[in-house]
Amino acid sequence: MIRINLLPHREEKRKARRQQFFALLGVVVVAAGLIWFLGHTAINGYIGSQQAKNEFLEKEIDGLKKEIAEISKLKDETDALLKRKQVIESLQGNRAETARMFDELLRRVPDGVRLVSFNQNNNVIDLTGESVSEARVSTLMRNLEESSMFQGVNPLEIRASTSSGGRSLFAFQLRMSIEHPAPANAKAGKDVSGKGAT
Q1: Most distant CA atoms of the chain, gap in Å
Q2: Beta carbons within 8 Å of 147's beta carbon, 6+ residues apart
Q3: What is the Cα–Cα distance from 63 to 55, expressed in whole angstroms?
Q4: What is the pLDDT of residues 57-110, one digit of tens each?
Protein backbone atom coordinates (compact mmCIF):
# COMPACT_ATOMS: atom_id res chain seq x y z
CA MET A 1 0.00 0.00 0.00
CA ILE A 2 1.37 3.34 -1.06
CA ARG A 3 0.82 6.47 1.10
CA ILE A 4 1.02 9.92 -0.43
CA ASN A 5 1.54 12.95 1.82
CA LEU A 6 -0.84 15.72 0.52
CA LEU A 7 -0.06 18.19 3.28
CA PRO A 8 2.56 20.20 1.30
CA HIS A 9 0.21 20.37 -1.72
CA ARG A 10 -2.70 21.59 0.42
CA GLU A 11 -0.48 24.08 2.12
CA GLU A 12 0.60 25.46 -1.24
CA LYS A 13 -3.06 25.65 -2.32
CA ARG A 14 -3.97 27.56 0.81
CA LYS A 15 -1.00 29.86 0.29
CA ALA A 16 -2.05 30.46 -3.35
CA ARG A 17 -5.63 31.17 -2.30
CA ARG A 18 -4.40 33.54 0.39
CA GLN A 19 -2.27 35.36 -2.15
CA GLN A 20 -5.21 35.53 -4.55
CA PHE A 21 -7.40 36.88 -1.75
CA PHE A 22 -4.88 39.56 -0.80
CA ALA A 23 -4.33 40.41 -4.46
CA LEU A 24 -8.08 40.73 -5.00
CA LEU A 25 -8.36 42.74 -1.78
CA GLY A 26 -5.60 45.03 -3.03
CA VAL A 27 -7.39 45.45 -6.36
CA VAL A 28 -10.65 46.25 -4.53
CA VAL A 29 -8.86 48.75 -2.26
CA VAL A 30 -7.13 50.38 -5.24
CA ALA A 31 -10.42 50.48 -7.18
CA ALA A 32 -12.25 51.94 -4.17
CA GLY A 33 -9.50 54.51 -3.70
CA LEU A 34 -9.62 55.39 -7.40
CA ILE A 35 -13.42 55.74 -7.29
CA TRP A 36 -13.18 57.89 -4.16
CA PHE A 37 -10.48 60.07 -5.75
CA LEU A 38 -12.47 60.48 -8.97
CA GLY A 39 -15.66 61.24 -7.00
CA HIS A 40 -13.85 63.67 -4.71
CA THR A 41 -12.22 65.38 -7.70
CA ALA A 42 -15.55 65.61 -9.51
CA ILE A 43 -17.32 66.99 -6.43
CA ASN A 44 -14.54 69.51 -5.78
CA GLY A 45 -14.65 70.51 -9.43
CA TYR A 46 -18.44 71.00 -9.23
CA ILE A 47 -18.10 72.96 -6.00
CA GLY A 48 -15.33 75.11 -7.51
CA SER A 49 -17.41 75.72 -10.63
CA GLN A 50 -20.45 76.63 -8.53
CA GLN A 51 -18.34 78.95 -6.37
CA ALA A 52 -16.99 80.63 -9.52
CA LYS A 53 -20.57 81.05 -10.78
CA ASN A 54 -21.64 82.45 -7.41
CA GLU A 55 -18.74 84.92 -7.40
CA PHE A 56 -19.60 85.96 -10.95
CA LEU A 57 -23.26 86.45 -10.00
CA GLU A 58 -22.28 88.43 -6.90
CA LYS A 59 -20.07 90.71 -9.02
CA GLU A 60 -22.90 91.17 -11.53
CA ILE A 61 -25.36 91.90 -8.71
CA ASP A 62 -22.95 94.46 -7.20
CA GLY A 63 -22.61 96.07 -10.63
CA LEU A 64 -26.39 96.17 -11.05
CA LYS A 65 -26.78 97.69 -7.57
CA LYS A 66 -24.31 100.44 -8.52
CA GLU A 67 -26.17 101.05 -11.79
CA ILE A 68 -29.51 101.16 -9.93
CA ALA A 69 -28.03 103.65 -7.43
CA GLU A 70 -26.75 105.80 -10.32
CA ILE A 71 -30.15 105.60 -12.06
CA SER A 72 -31.89 106.58 -8.81
CA LYS A 73 -29.46 109.49 -8.40
CA LEU A 74 -30.08 110.59 -12.00
CA LYS A 75 -33.84 110.31 -11.41
CA ASP A 76 -33.57 112.50 -8.30
CA GLU A 77 -31.47 115.03 -10.23
CA THR A 78 -33.99 114.95 -13.10
CA ASP A 79 -36.89 115.49 -10.68
CA ALA A 80 -35.03 118.41 -9.07
CA LEU A 81 -34.34 119.95 -12.49
CA LEU A 82 -37.99 119.52 -13.49
CA LYS A 83 -39.10 121.23 -10.27
CA ARG A 84 -36.68 124.10 -10.92
CA LYS A 85 -37.97 124.33 -14.48
CA GLN A 86 -41.56 124.48 -13.22
CA VAL A 87 -40.62 127.19 -10.70
CA ILE A 88 -38.85 129.22 -13.40
CA GLU A 89 -41.79 128.82 -15.78
CA SER A 90 -44.17 129.82 -12.98
CA LEU A 91 -42.06 132.89 -12.20
CA GLN A 92 -41.88 133.83 -15.85
CA GLY A 93 -45.64 133.42 -16.16
CA ASN A 94 -46.27 135.44 -13.00
CA ARG A 95 -43.88 138.24 -14.00
CA ALA A 96 -46.21 139.62 -16.65
CA GLU A 97 -49.20 139.15 -14.35
CA THR A 98 -47.41 140.98 -11.51
CA ALA A 99 -46.56 143.93 -13.77
CA ARG A 100 -50.16 144.04 -15.00
CA MET A 101 -51.46 143.82 -11.44
CA PHE A 102 -49.41 146.82 -10.22
CA ASP A 103 -50.34 148.81 -13.31
CA GLU A 104 -54.02 148.00 -12.76
CA LEU A 105 -53.78 148.82 -9.06
CA LEU A 106 -52.12 152.20 -9.62
CA ARG A 107 -54.69 153.17 -12.26
CA ARG A 108 -57.49 152.39 -9.79
CA VAL A 109 -56.16 154.58 -6.94
CA PRO A 110 -58.04 157.92 -6.92
CA ASP A 111 -56.58 161.31 -5.98
CA GLY A 112 -56.42 161.89 -2.26
CA VAL A 113 -55.52 158.23 -1.50
CA ARG A 114 -52.01 157.06 -0.65
CA LEU A 115 -51.08 153.39 -0.43
CA VAL A 116 -48.73 152.64 2.45
CA SER A 117 -48.19 148.88 2.20
CA PHE A 118 -48.95 145.99 -0.11
CA ASN A 119 -48.89 142.39 1.09
CA GLN A 120 -49.65 139.38 -1.13
CA ASN A 121 -50.16 135.83 0.14
CA ASN A 122 -50.89 133.52 -2.78
CA ASN A 123 -54.04 135.03 -4.34
CA VAL A 124 -54.96 137.24 -1.35
CA ILE A 125 -53.81 140.88 -1.23
CA ASP A 126 -53.87 143.15 1.82
CA LEU A 127 -53.64 146.89 1.17
CA THR A 128 -53.11 149.58 3.80
CA GLY A 129 -53.17 153.27 3.12
CA GLU A 130 -54.38 156.73 4.01
CA SER A 131 -57.17 158.82 2.51
CA VAL A 132 -58.37 162.40 2.90
CA SER A 133 -61.94 161.13 3.35
CA GLU A 134 -64.03 157.99 3.70
CA ALA A 135 -65.60 158.79 0.34
CA ARG A 136 -62.20 158.40 -1.35
CA VAL A 137 -61.82 154.97 0.29
CA SER A 138 -65.24 154.02 -1.08
CA THR A 139 -64.17 155.27 -4.52
CA LEU A 140 -61.01 153.15 -4.32
CA MET A 141 -63.03 150.05 -3.40
CA ARG A 142 -65.50 150.72 -6.22
CA ASN A 143 -62.64 151.18 -8.72
CA LEU A 144 -61.02 147.93 -7.62
CA GLU A 145 -64.29 146.02 -7.87
CA GLU A 146 -64.78 147.28 -11.42
CA SER A 147 -61.43 145.76 -12.41
CA SER A 148 -61.42 142.34 -14.05
CA MET A 149 -58.30 141.46 -12.07
CA PHE A 150 -59.47 142.06 -8.50
CA GLN A 151 -62.44 140.54 -6.77
CA GLY A 152 -63.94 140.31 -3.30
CA VAL A 153 -62.73 143.75 -2.15
CA ASN A 154 -63.55 144.02 1.57
CA PRO A 155 -62.61 146.68 4.12
CA LEU A 156 -60.88 145.26 7.18
CA GLU A 157 -60.50 148.59 8.96
CA ILE A 158 -61.24 152.28 8.35
CA ARG A 159 -60.40 154.67 11.19
CA ALA A 160 -59.80 158.36 11.60
CA SER A 161 -56.22 159.43 12.20
CA THR A 162 -54.06 162.54 12.06
CA SER A 163 -51.09 163.12 9.77
CA SER A 164 -47.75 164.45 10.98
CA GLY A 165 -48.81 167.87 9.70
CA GLY A 166 -51.97 167.83 11.80
CA ARG A 167 -54.38 167.06 8.94
CA SER A 168 -57.28 164.70 9.48
CA LEU A 169 -56.89 161.45 7.57
CA PHE A 170 -58.56 158.09 7.36
CA ALA A 171 -56.31 155.04 7.70
CA PHE A 172 -57.71 151.96 5.99
CA GLN A 173 -56.94 148.33 5.35
CA LEU A 174 -58.51 146.40 2.48
CA ARG A 175 -58.39 142.74 1.53
CA MET A 176 -59.09 141.35 -1.93
CA SER A 177 -58.14 138.45 -4.15
CA ILE A 178 -56.63 138.19 -7.61
CA GLU A 179 -58.59 136.68 -10.44
CA HIS A 180 -56.19 134.78 -12.69
CA PRO A 181 -56.55 135.20 -16.44
CA ALA A 182 -59.38 133.04 -17.74
CA PRO A 183 -59.24 130.96 -20.95
CA ALA A 184 -59.81 132.80 -24.22
CA ASN A 185 -63.48 131.76 -24.54
CA ALA A 186 -64.31 132.80 -20.97
CA LYS A 187 -62.42 136.06 -21.41
CA ALA A 188 -64.33 136.79 -24.63
CA GLY A 189 -67.57 136.14 -22.73
CA LYS A 190 -66.54 138.64 -20.08
CA ASP A 191 -65.68 141.22 -22.70
CA VAL A 192 -69.14 140.78 -24.26
CA SER A 193 -70.82 141.18 -20.89
CA GLY A 194 -68.92 144.42 -20.24
CA LYS A 195 -66.53 143.03 -17.63
CA GLY A 196 -63.50 142.79 -19.80
CA ALA A 197 -60.29 144.75 -19.77
CA THR A 198 -60.45 148.30 -18.55
Answers
A1: 176
A2: 104, 108, 198
A3: 12
A4: 999 999 899 999 999 999 999 999 988 888 777 766 667 777 888 888 888 899
Q: Phi and psi of 3, rounded to 5°?
A: -110, 130
pTM of the model: 0.44
For the residues of the chain, what is the DSSP string, one character each?
------HHHHHHHHHHHHHHHHHHHHHHHHHHHHHHHHHHHHHHHHHHHHHHHHHHHHHHHHHHHHHHHHHHHHHHHHHHHHHHHHHHHHHHHHHHHHHHHHHHHHHHPPTTEEEEEEEEETTEEEEEEEESSHHHHHHHHHHHHHSSSEEEEEEEEEEEEE-TTS-EEEEEEEEEEE-PPPPHHHHHHHHHTT-S--
Residue type, 184: A
CB within 8 Å of 101: residues ≥ 6 apart: 149, 178
State the Cα–Cα distance between residues 197 and 76, nearest whole angstrom. Answer: 43
Between strands 113-121 and 150-162, the pairing is unpaired
Q: What is the mean pLDDT of the chain?
A: 81
What does the alpha-carbon distance between residue 44 and residue 50 come to, in Å, rounded to a whole number? Answer: 10
